[in-house]
Structures are given as C-alpha cells and as structure tokens.
Write a structure and sequence with these properties.
Keywords: 2Fe-2S, Apoptosis, Electron transport, FAD, Flavoprotein, Iron, Iron-sulfur, Metal-binding, Mitochondrion, Oxidoreductase, Transport. The chain is α/β, with parallel strands linked by helices. The protein folds into 4 domains: about 110 residues, Rieske Iron-sulfur Protein, CATH 2.102.10; about 210 residues, FAD/NAD(P)-binding domain, CATH 3.50.50.60; about 110 residues, FAD/NAD(P)-binding domain; about 80 residues, Enolase-like, domain 1, CATH 3.30.390. A hairpin with a 2-residue loop joins strand 2 and strand 3. The radius of gyration is 25 Å and the shape is globular. The chain starts with a strand and ends with a helix. The relative contact order is 0.10.
C-alpha cells in the first residue's frame, strides 16, 4: 500500500479567495507628531495556488502504511523539509510538523478527535485542513494531500510549504475604499493587541469585504507582547519592534486592515455610534470591538516620579531596562509573572537582582505555596535575592535618578533601575458614561458571544469578564495571551451573526532560567493541590482541585501532560481528585492513554 502526500488548498478556501474582491488596497493612517497622515498603498495580489510550479514540488518515499497505528503521529523527512503524518480512525492525514507559533514539534503534542494540540502552548490544529482552531498564534499549518497506492508511502509536497511550515488563511479585501469618508467605518476596533488583530483577520477570513479600522495608543503595529517580559525580545540593547511584530506592514496593506497609531479614544457615544478621540477626531462605526487591555499599576510611595523606574509596557521600555540594568543593581517590585520573568532574564546580566513582594512566596495564589517555594528556590540558586512580606516605602534619588529603594521593613536596597510589576487595572475608564455595562472592578461584562449589553458592541481580551464553560459559566477575567486570541475570533464571528459561543480551555505558560511552567484550566479559588513528581528536581505536575474536581493543572518538565489534560477538559469531562492521586497517573503520562480519565466523571 502506498501513501502519497500532496499539497492542496482546501476547496472552501479556494472558493473564498475566488470571491475576494479586487478593490484598491487600503490606506494606512498613522498618527505622526500629532497629525493624521493618509497613505495610499498599492495592491499586492495573492496567487490562488502557490503550488502550481512543478519545480517547487518534492516527492519522497517515507514509510509503509502499516507503520502507523490509529492515533499515532510520525515526523517524516522529505529531504528538503519534514511533514507530520497522522493516522486517525483508519485515515491518513498530513500537515506541517511545527507549530507556527514558536516552532514546537507537533509530533510531541496531543492527538485527539481530529486535531493536534501543541505541547508547549496549547494551540490546536485541524488534522484534515491544517486550520488553527485554538490559540496562540495566527497562522495555520500547510495541509498535504494523502494518497494510498500499493505498498509504499510517498509524500509529494511543496518545498516552500515544507520550509515555511505555516499557512495564512485566505482573506477577502475591502471592495472599494472610495465609498468611505475617513471619519466612517463599518468595523472599528479599539486596541491593537492579540484580540483586536485576530478579530480583524477573522472578519477577512470569513469573506467580510467592508472597511475595518483598528486604533491603538501604541506607536507600533500589533506585536507579540509576551516576548517583552519573557526574555525573547530582550536579547540586546538595540532590539527593534519589527522583530516581534505579529504581522509585517505588508500584511495590513494586502488585506485592507487600516491602523491608526498613537490614537486614544476618549469616549464612545453608543446612541449615535461614534467614537470620540482625545484629539477631537470623531469616527462613526457600525460594529465596535473594545479590546483595550489593561493599564499597569504604579507605585504610590514617596519618590515614585524619579527616573529609571519602569513598567515594561513597550519595546522601548524593554530596551531601556536592559541597557540600564547591565552590570548594575536592579530592584523588581512584585513577584508577578512580569516581575519573575524579568528577574530571571536579568539575573545573568545585572550586578544584583532584588525582588520585593508582599506575599510569603511567589505565585502563591496562582500556583500554590509548594510550587511557589520550589520556584523561589530556583531563583535563589541563580543569585536573585527575595525580600518577602514587605513593601516599598520610598524611592530615593541622586541627581534625579534612582539610587536606593527603601522598604517598610527598614531595609535599604541599592538600585540603579527599578521594574514595577504589582498588577494592572482594566483600561476602561473612558467607558464610564457610555452605558456599556462595567462591573465594580472596571471590567466590561460580556456574554459567551463576547457581546456587551449594547447591540453591535463587543469586547475582548484582558479588559472583560465572560462566562467560562469550564467553571459552570462563572464570570471570570482571564488576562492571558491565548484567551485574547480566542476572544477576538469569537467576537468577529458574532459580528457576522454566526451565533458562536466561547468554550476554550485557558492555557498559559511562563519561562524562567530556560525552564517553562505550563498551565491549563482556571484554578481560582482552589482548595487543594495534588503534586506528582519531584518539586526539588523541578520535574512535577500539580493538579488544582476544588470540591474534589480538578479545575487546573500545571507542570514543569512533564510535557505534554498539560496539553493532554487540556484536551480532557475541552471535552467537558470531569477529572476527580482521586483520579490524579494514584499510580495510574504515571500510566496516563507514559502511555498517552487518556481512556482512564475520559471514561470517568460525566
């Protein structure tokens, strides 16, 4: 029996592109020195099938059809690149072998019910189409056609697809911008983070050909914000924002997504559907997405205005911190994800790193005391000094620049630079008089379709609370990168009246000293933690339980256990505390057999 894999474009996407209008490309409007400047951008045609060139095709023999059992995956080498061969329910499928997000090997991920989940960050891809179905990341996998002939297995694929290992879904363009006034748009997106960008892309992927405008207070086009604090951007003192851009400028030009940079919305008139900007500019809209994220909390102590005190919010902040901290004394206030990740990155570069935290151990409320202490021990072995259960009372300066940090305990720390990571508040102050429902903490309240109480107004990302299916539709705030992506997609689909409800499982990760903690679920309010493995060796799995039910899981050096549990939770299966508190856990991890979990509970 032969298996042949040939790159194809799904009929749905091919027809979608054929329907895409060929109107003029969109202008980008940038805010430069306080003046809105209008640029007309030339059209960038997209080929309907990039694999027609026979010189771009490679064919190779890879395996026998009986080499794979149902539920198995294998990386196969075609000489100029690899593909992921999958067998499920007696059928073969082939897609790209690397996750387009950060390049994780998908063969080490989790295969379940027609999709493969990334072992690192939880993104999910349909094995039949390659389409991304859960996030993070923007691109899908290239899909290769599988043919079975005789007893040999052949793969026929595009060299380009094998090398790039990613595929941008086909998108529509705006039919004609000449019909629009600059102060009027069909869809206005306030905020240019992950939620806003995914919303815009999803609209185009679904064939929406009307005007889309995004606006942001930032100077830059959308970028990968987690890289600012996880050390992936801070590789030099002269890194550029383009290095972490989610999409290049050409992408926005090609797909007619307009961007207003350094533009702040001051108010929203929901009755007349008008957004009022801080500089007085007004824009009418038909549909509105609010994805403004959050605003970092500042210190309230004496001397808070001295120089060299930062909230790392922008690429410029990150570059400045690296430059000032190299071979100097650093004080980080707050053992938050931001604080701990920045401390881990600077530990090898600064002369000293001190971390000040009000709690007894880092991450206590999120990961629990035992995991928090294990992480703390790892930091201490890497020269990070902790000052726990205290706060900053004063920042002292010399010639206007930071010199010392004084703690309420009386301790005085030498400091050339201070990074503040003490939490954030939703950036929703401009909505207080709008009539949009805001809760007591400032979060925008939305339903499962990301709709607010105002028709045509949607909200997404860190600034919202929404019903989480995993926790019996409890209204929660989940300020994580993956969730922002999904919020944006759900909002876009419901702008188009698809009636789609959110049901994703929260998934996050943190990276410190070359080690990663992965986490899935929503453990807020957990009452017990079941630890499997060895915390001292930093090889463990922690199950967070509430009333005998597992509500979240975290792991270090135990991939892909978090992705496996995420798949169980995504299938609405209940995992009981007794299920993970037995030796069967190790059988589950080693064999990959999830039947003992999925067969229990409801």
């Amino acid at each position: 029996v032969e298996v042949k894999i040939e790159v194809v474009i799904p009929e749905k996407e091919r027809s979608k592109e054929e329907m895409s209008p060929n109107g003029k490309a969109s202008p980008l409007i940038y805010k430069v020195n306080g003046t809105a400047r209008h640029y007309h951008l030339e059209e960038h045609p997209i080929a309907s099938n990039p694999y027609h060139n026979p010189k771009d095709v490679v064919e190779a023999s890879v395996c026998h059809v009986k080499d794979l059992e149902n539920g198995q995956m294998r990386e196969v080498d075609l000489g100029c690149g690899k593909a992921l061969l999958i067998k499920e329910s007696g059928e073969f499928h082939a897609v790209g072998h690397k996750c387009p997000h950060y390049g994780a090997p998908l063969v080490k991920g989790v295969l379940s019910k027609g999709r493969v989940r990334c072992p690192w960050h939880g993104a999910c891809f349909n094995i039949g189409t390659g389409d991304i179905e859960d996030f993070p990341g923007l691109d899908s996998l290239p899909r290769f056609q599988v043919k079975i002939e005789k007893e040999k297995v052949y793969i026929r694929a595009s060299k380009q697809a094998l090398q790039t290992q990613r595929r941008t879904k086909m998108m529509a363009k705006c039919i004609s911008l000449s019909n629009y006034n600059l102060s009027s748009t069909n869809v206005l997106i306030i905020g240019a983070g992950a939620a806003g960008l995914v919303c815009a892309e999803t609209l185009r992927q679904e064939g929406f050909s009307d005007r889309i405008v995004m606006c942001t207070m930032d100077r830059h086009l959308p970028y990968d914000r987690p890289k600012l604090k996880k050390g992936l951007f801070l590789q030099s003192m002269d890194s550029h924002p383009e290095q972490i851009a989610l999409r290049p400028k050409e992408f926005f030009r090609t797909y007619d997504i307009e961007v207003l940079t350094e533009m702040q919305v001051a108010a929203v008139d929901i009755k007349n559907k008008i957004a009022v900007f801080k500089d007085g500019f007004k824009m009418e809209y038909n549909k509105l997405l609010i994805a403004t994220g959050n605003t970092p909390k500042a210190l309230s102590c004496k001397g808070k205005e001295v120089e060299n005190v930062f909230n790392i919010r922008t690429p410029e902040d990150a570059n400045r911190v690296v430059k000032l901290a190299t071979s100097k004394n650093v004080v980080i206030v707050g053992a938050s994800f931001l604080g701990m990740e920045v401390a881990a990155y600077l530990a090898e570069r600064a002369h000293s790193v001190s971390l000040v935290e009000l709690e007894e151990v880092p991450f206590k409320k999120f990961f629990g005391e035992r995991v928090g202490r294990a992480v703390m021990k790892m930091f201490e072995s890497n020269r990070v000094k902790f000052y726990m259960q205290t706060e900053v009372s004063e920042l002292r300066e010399q010639e206007g620049k930071l010199k010392e940090v004084v703690l309420k305990s009386g301790k005085v720390l030498r400091a050339d630079v201070c990074v503040v990571g003490v939490g954030a508040v939703p950036a929703t102050g401009f909505l207080k008089q709008s009539g949009i429902n805001i809760d007591s903490k400032g979060f925008i309240v939305v339903n499962k379709m990301m709709q607010t109480n105002i028709p045509g107004v949607f909200a997404a990302g860190d600034a919202v609370t929404f019903p989480l299916a995993l926790r019996n539709n409890k209204k929660v705030n989940v300020p994580h990168w993956q969730m922002a992506h999904m919020h944006g997609r759900i909002a876009a689909l419901n702008m188009l009246a698809h009636g789609m409800e959110i049901s994703t499982v929260p998934y996050l990760w943190t990276a410190m000293f070359g080690k990663s903690i992965r986490y899935a679920g929503h453990g807020e309010g957990f009452d017990d933690v079941v630890i499997q493995g060895d915390l001292d060796e930093l090889k463990f799995v922690a199950f967070y339980t509430k009333s005998d039910e597992v509500v979240a899981v975290a792991s270090m050096n135990y991939d892909p256990i978090v992705s496996k549990v995420a798949e169980v939770l995504a299938a609405s299966r209940i995992i009981r505390k007794r299920d993970v508190d037995t030796a069967d856990f190790f059988l589950f991890f080693r064999t990959g057999d999830m039947s003992w979990l999925t067969g229990k509970g409801s």
